[in-house]
Amino acid sequence: MQLVWRRIQESLEKHRRAALISVIRVDGSAPREVGARMVVQQDAGFFGTIGGGRLEYETLAVAETALSAETPVASVRVWPLGPNLGQCCGGSVTTLVETFDAGDLDRVRGLAAAEEAGPFVSISRMTAQGRVAREILDGDVDTAEDGEAAVKQRFVERFGEARKTVLLFGAGHVGRAVVLALSQLPFSVRWIDTREDHFPDYVPANVTPVRTDAPEREIDAAPRGAFAVIMTHSHPLDYSIAAAALRRADLGFVGLIGSATKRARFASQAKNLGISEQQIARLVCPIGLPDIRDKEPGVIAAGVAAQLLIERERDSRPPSPLE
Asked: What backbone phi and psi angles, to 5 degrees, belong to 187?
């Protein structure tokens, strides 16, 4: 769930009560990570998942019982997955279940506004009144604090999602399929094309259409670490955008639709433009997963989406001591 507090706000406005289930610690193998959450509405279903199975079933029962109480409450519980729940993961999960009523609406609205402004970190603790107090931090904290803190009823929480920026050049059939494939994934897409009236009337919420005569300028303005996926209607334009992207050493993935032959032709031209062998080596062409050979736009898009998720995971992974 990307906007937890907005969902809680909406639930309070419609139903006057809401519960939040949060995974605040994981030891060993578990179905979801720290930060997995569910919002539960009284007699109106739930949103999100903490991994399904018996763990989710039992935790939902705790939340539904808490929602029936007269006043909001919060509780922390450790769930050994193997012995108690019969789940083969074998680890244990610590959950926080808390409920809210109309009296919490102003506080929830403040947290929703903070979440919509961007990812944030809070130091959270259980109060003597059995509620959760959250202090939003200006910066980040050492992730090593997370596990110890959960035992002491003081823990680190992270809300919102840092979306990786993807510059998608080209609004043709494959470009449209890629936009749909990325619509539910943790990316913020700038969808760029030089042609008038080539974007559909509707685009997903995480997509911004950009019509421009100078798409290379989008490369110049891109944030550090952004991904570039190039699939325009013109090979010369593809090459120009790819050259601009490779000149920026601080960009992440740079992918070009095409074949090995197209890549070889680009490499030849790029050398004449003064682009080094090291820079050219960063270019991924063809794009997508190599074991998927189907050329249908939707299939290509699925491979590209999987490839971008792999690259995003690689970018967010801390280096090992041997690296």
From this structure: -130, 150
DSSP secondary structure letters along 39-57: EEETTS-EEE-S--HHHHH
DSSP 8-state code for residue 29: S
DSSP-based three-state secondary structure for 129: coil
Taking every pair of Cα atoms in the chain, the longest distance, rounded to a whole number of angstroms, is 74
* Calpha distance 145→141 (Å, rounded): 8
- Rounded CA-CA distance 215/208 in Å is 14
Token digits for 276?
């080094």
Q: In the structure encoding, which two tokens stand for residue 280, read together?
A: 């050219």
Q: How far is the C-alpha of 100 from the C-alpha of 77, rounded, in Å?
A: 18
SS3 155: strand
Mean pLDDT per 10-residue interval, the chain, length 323 residues? 87 93 89 90 85 88 92 90 62 92 94 89 89 84 48 76 91 96 94 92 93 94 95 93 94 94 91 89 93 92 96 68 35
Rounded to whole angstroms, how far apart are CA atoms 21 and 9? 15
Q: What is the model's pTM?
A: 0.71
User: Which pair of structure tokens corresponds to residue 145?
Assistant: 């604090």
- Beta-bridge mates of residue 126: 132
Collapse the DSSP code of 214 into the 3-class scheme (helix H, G, I; strand E, B; otherwise coil) and give the result. coil
